Here is the input.
Amino acid sequence: MGRATFSFVCQSCGAQARQFFGRCPGCGGWNTLVEQASPPPDGRRRRAPGAAAIGELDARPRRSQPIQAVGERPLARLASGFDELDRVLGGGLVPGSLVLVGGDPGIGKSTLLLQAAQVMARSCSVLYVSAEESAQQVKLRWRRLGPDASPGPEPGSLQLLAETDLELVLQELESLRPAVAIIDSIQALHDAELTSAPGSVAQVRECAAALQRLAKRQDTALLLVGHVTKEGMLAGPKVLEHLVDAVLTFEGDRFASHRLLRAAKNRFGATHELGVFEMRDRGLVEVTNPSELFLGSEGPCAGTATIVACEGTRPLLVELQSLVSGTSYASPRRTATGIGINRLHQILAVLEKHLGLPLSRFDCYLAVAGGLDVEEPAADLGVAAAVVASYRDLTLPAGTVLVGELGLGGQLRPVGQLELRLQEAARLGFHRAVVPRASGLGSLATELDLQVLEAATVADALVAALGVDPAAD
Ligand code: TYD
Ligand code: MG
Here is the structure.
């Protein structure tokens, strides 16, 4: 059988080619193709410890069966000790699942997983494989994190292995059969049978696949740490993302202490859930009331507006700040932090057209407090209010939140999960909300003791929010 042997592999997307290209034909990245030795012919394929799983699969009946007849196993999820992490995972770690945790170097992936390992080790066996740091370094960190004085029923069920050789890691996994194994990181592991360097796509793919085969067979939940490349991608992302059950990304501002954990893919729960942590001197602490983190403490001032963003099932009150000032350039400057710049352009265009504000002669800067990224369009009305307030030098009345998407025709469009957002606003002491028209708001407003102002257009909404007509000269 004439099997193609590819010898150039893109280190970014995993695309393969038989000849060298300066630009990857798959992802378009420059200089990402690296020559790799062709895999050995099938006959010489080494015996991977996980390979027996294939044999087991072969022994199973190959016939299909009615879906009702498929046996169900209750999902006994493992609690990680962090409610925030459990929620992002969809309610806890599923036995036998494969989870990839990605993030920039130094963001706190090792800290998060070591802390979770400490807690999980109280109820089950945990193996922590450190491929980047020596056992001494991990021990030091473990000390610093202040392990619980009461170690629980089975002290010492947290095993540590500092190893980079895949073969040895697989052997240890096979002999220990832990309930949870943490590999920190997948890029630092290496398979001696491959000639490519650790961290290359071929290595990452082989190592992850071998670990997965073994873990699925013995029902070990695997947590893989993956580094993000300079371009902000998980190395070998296309290679790993379809392989794993969940992809979590750990992100945050290097200048701020809070860290956000999101699920980009989750076979056992909803994506777009958000977990919020704070990095302290003794490790990560959960932030159970994140709205406080993203609200300015100074109270309202000109050019600020508060919105309720919804991250997954979780409403978050976030402060937006805007600065509008006369431009000295031919084309005005527009800068947005935490909100897409195109969204800002669109909102400015709507305000110019439908309120007659000459914003094209003004520079506009917009920032989301606390370094959060707000992607959803429900923030539009808040952005518009912050911009108009700064332009007119007005202060929004204290205790006001704004929610709504702006249509290009100047209309205010409905947003999802309005009830949840209003409940959160009321809980945090806000008493006025400007929202798009929706049914059943009257009773909710009475129930929450909230003044709910409904508007059909952005002009009406701004009049309601500011108390004056911003379009009037
Ligand atoms: P780390 O978990 O090593 O990051 P990653 O594994 O993602 O590369 O986190 C390292 C950073 O966290 C480092 O800059 C120091 C900081 N840190 C604290 O502030 N407090 C702590 O208790 C710990 C353990 C780390
Ligand atoms: Mg680390």
Summary: DSSP finds 13 helices and 21 strands in the chain.
